[in-house]
């Protein structure tokens, strides 16, 4: 993605945090020469400096078949975002813009048809999203479980390239930042999240 140098974020810990906070992401690969996307909940982990992404898609979804022949994929994690009014700038000739965070992960996908692999992914997703459901999941009827596992395909992706774009007003004039910060802090959930990241990264006054 296009990233002006003042918006580049390359700290692996920061990027991993964004990916885990915003783990309902967009998986993109190619089918018949055209981009194809799936919107899926994902598991993001890091071990020994290697970032791995795992998830599953419906067996009826042609996405997994395409990734068997062409495993290269892009995953987009959409962080918080918000409109920025030009009235917050000192220069009256400015125009509206948008503050946002996005992380792109690229790598090759490995398809997993094994029940053990798929159960591991499902259990990890449950542990992340609703740990209390695990006991009920474990009591599922065997026939129903077999049918459910047969209806999905698991996948993992080792991340070979990770890019972070944090467009948070850090390039604005110092005198403009308090007004922008105050607007974000008193706004909605996305605006407050942007304000939090600005403070965390030291782009705004604490």
Task: Give an overview of the whole structure.
The chain has helices spanning 12-21, 63-69, 115-129, 134-138, 142-150, 177-185, 189-200, and strands at 8-9, 24-31, 34-41, 43-47, 50-58, 72-84, 97-112, 152-167. It is α+β, with helices and mostly antiparallel strands and 206 residues long. Strands 1, 2, 3, 4, 5, 6, 7 and 8 form an eight-stranded antiparallel sheet that branches. Strand 2 (24-31) and strand 3 (34-41) form a beta hairpin. The mean pLDDT is 91.
Brief rundown of the structure:
This protein is α+β, with helices and mostly antiparallel strands and 206 residues long. It has helices spanning 12-21, 63-69, 115-129, 134-138, 142-150, 177-185, 189-200, and strands spanning 8-9, 24-31, 34-41, 43-47, 50-58, 72-84, 97-112, 152-167. Strands 1, 2, 3, 4, 5, 6, 7 and 8 form an eight-stranded antiparallel β-sheet that branches.
Descriptive key words:
8 strands; 33% helix; 8-stranded antiparallel beta sheet; 206 residues; elongated; 7 helices; alpha+beta
* Portion in beta strands: 35-45%
Helicity level: 25-40%
**What form results from the Cα inertia axes?**
elongated
Oligomer: single chain
Low-confidence stretches: none
N-end to C-end Cα span: 30 Å
Total DSSP helices: 7
Average of pLDDT: 91
Judged by helices, strands and strand pairing, the structural class is alpha+beta
Largest sheet at a glance?
A: 8 strands, antiparallel
Order of helices and strands: EHEEEEHEEHHHEHH
Count the beta strands.
8
Give the radius of gyration. 20 Å
């Amino acid at each position: 993605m296009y990233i002006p140098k003042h918006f580049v974020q390359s700290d692996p810990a920061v990027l991993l945090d964004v990916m885990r906070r915003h783990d309902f992401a967009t998986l993109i690969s190619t089918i018949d020469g055209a981009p194809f996307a799936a919107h899926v909940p994902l598991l993001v982990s890091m071990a020994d400096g290697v970032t791995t992404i795992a998830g599953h898609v419906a067996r009826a979804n042609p996405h997994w078949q395409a990734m068997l022949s062409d495993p290269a994929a892009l995953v987009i994690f959409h962080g918080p975002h918000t409109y920025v009014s030009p009235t917050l700038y000192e220069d009256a000739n400015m125009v509206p813009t948008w503050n946002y965070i996005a992380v792109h992960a690229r790598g090759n996908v490995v398809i997993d048809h094994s029940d053990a692999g798929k159960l591991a992914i499902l259990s990890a997703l449950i542990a992340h999203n609703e740990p209390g459901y695990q006991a009920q999941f474990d009591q599922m009827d065997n026939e129903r479980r077999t049918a459910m596992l047969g209806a999905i395909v698991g996948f993992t992706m080792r991340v070979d390239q990770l890019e972070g774009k944090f467009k948070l007003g850090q390039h604005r004039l110092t005198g403009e930042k308090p007004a922008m910060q105050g607007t974000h802090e008193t706004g909605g959930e996305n605006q407050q999240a942007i304000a939090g990241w600005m403070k965390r990264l030291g782009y705004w006054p604490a």
